[in-house]
Amino acid sequence: MTRGPGRRAPLVVVGDALLDRDLDGRAERLAPDAPVPVVDDPAERCRPGGAALAASLAACLDGRSVILVTALATDEAGEVLRGLLERAGVEVVDLGLAGRTPEKIRVRVDGRSLLRLDRATRPGAVGPLDRAGRRAIAGAVAVLVADYGRGMAAEPEVRAALAALPARRSLVWDPHPRGPAPVAGARLATPNRAEAAGFASQVAGEGLAAVTARARTLAERWAAGGVAVTLGAGGALLVEGSGAPLVVPAPAFIGGDPCGAGDRFAAAAAGLLGDGALPSEAVAGAVASASAFVAAGGAATIHLDPGDPATPNRRPPMPRPPLERTPGEPTPGEPTPGAPEPRPPLSGPPVGKPSPSPELGDPAVHSSSTDPSKSDSAVGLNSRSAFFPPSADRRMGIRWEITVVSRRYAAVVRICFFGVVATLFDHSILTLSSSRPAFRYPA
Fold it and tell me: Closest Cα to residue 285, out of 173, 409, 369, 380?
């Protein structure tokens, strides 16, 4: 494996590769012989699954150089999977799989899954780690183990190569209930809430206090630097050593598809740790990346079929055109001479999100939002940038505030005017009534 003089070390993903097939059709009637929907004219779309999905997401969405160390079969599904990885730009180190390629088939209607079919559920035998695999792991900027319980993470030579990584090399382990425990010294382990409950079943409870206790138990058992338990729509909880847990909330959104969210989280965290981020920064960035991925439609947005680009079908937003400025006017972001300092953003949890639960007890829970995409202005919370682009100059904001204040004063003046008119009208009626002679009945 050779790299150019300006090319950075790759992110290496180690794990079991699967083939995912989506059958998208329409359901407008029920079958006459059973109360089940009939899916008409399903269109098949294939994409990488398992560790292959994590590698493809890092390559397609993050633009990283990725090497996947996995075991591929020689059947038709294995050849399809190999072609998809090639189109995604992922370099493959194949250890060989004696058996069939595992497949997950989802039948979908209107973007929602009706059922899933699994093929080759019995794992095949994984080949030994070769020289190319050892060289890839040793030369990685970071290593992600995406374990799907099919033998790759349990291969003795693979585990020996992972355990021999220097401490400065970031190792992220995404465990599986049917897989082995992570090797000692992992920088970060990323089980989800249900997996953490299964790994540390001796800890009772369902709240964040129980999640924190399980994370501490697993970090001590696995000798891991940190454990980040993903909480689905609740974000993630990170525990490092004996310090206070860190709760990173996920931005609120409606809809989405959670398929592949765990792989997106783990791949983003591993990439950020390889970039030099702290575990807290990596978890915050991974929560933001996974949330955006789910909101966009999940794994179904990755199109790698022949003829489609190896990128998600959601294109990035078009950049705003630059504003026209007069000579001498400061550019956006530069302070205006003599202008007051901008007010800091409002503190506290995001709108629509509850404060951290007090059930944690003594340890303080800190809410982190270091990613720019989670700031108030990005999600449209109560800030002035929600009304005009943040690239507008300060004078635009001053004019906007003056307009709002003027409208408020105008409303107050109108209320006072009509109040005075109503008072004078009532007074005139009373005056006319008092000046009119009283009616007397004739004697």
Answer: 369
Residue 132 pLDDT > 90: yes
Q: What are the extents of the domains in the chain?
A: 11-27+37-312, 387-434
Answer with the residue of higher pLDDT: 231 or 315. Answer: 231
User: Which residues have CB under 8 Å from 114's CB, separation 6+?
Assistant: 27, 37, 39, 107, 108
Please give the positions annotated as active site.
263
**Nearest partner of 39 among 50, 28, 48, judged by Cα:** 28
Topology of 11-27+37-312 in CATH?
Answer: UDP-N-acetylmuramoyl-L-alanine:D-glutamate ligase (3.40.1190)
User: For the whole model, what pTM was predicted?
Assistant: 0.68
Determine whether 375 is exposed, middle or buried from the number of CB atoms within 10 Å of its CB (0-12, 13-18, 19+).
middle
pLDDT tens digits for 394-440? Answer: 333 444 444 444 455 555 556 656 665 566 655 554 454 455 454 44
User: How far apart, in whole angstroms, are the C-alpha atoms of residue 140 and residue 170?
Assistant: 9
Per-residue pLDDT tens digits for 294-337: 999 888 888 886 655 444 443 333 333 333 444 454 444 444 44
